[in-house]
């Protein structure tokens, strides 16, 4: 399975060190290899990584795995996030239009979600420190003429 960072992150100089960290990608590949038999087929799968809290940002690293038969580009993810046992966010997250390359079947994309921060000190949270419940993950298709999105 090929793992790449989201296109827009590859274009931002501040992320260059992170993007070029092959050991990080290798760790994700190793994790996916171990989980291969447990992953559902014919679905988009979201796997949460570490979360960093710094000033006004709470950034979650995540991996989107395309186990469908079709390529996908933009997605929406319904989530509930709890931090250190307390509810923090519930809602739908959508990837921005034209910031992502097409994700082929049996490939994965590393990305970041910024939940914003107004409660916590600077720190790095391991997956044991937060709970991210994924209610759904589905492809969305933006209608360019109407500037609206539709779900598939």
UniProtKB/TrEMBL annotation:
> According to the lineage, what is the superkingdom?
Bacteria
- Protein known as: Uncharacterized protein
Native source organism of the sequence: Enterococcus rivorum
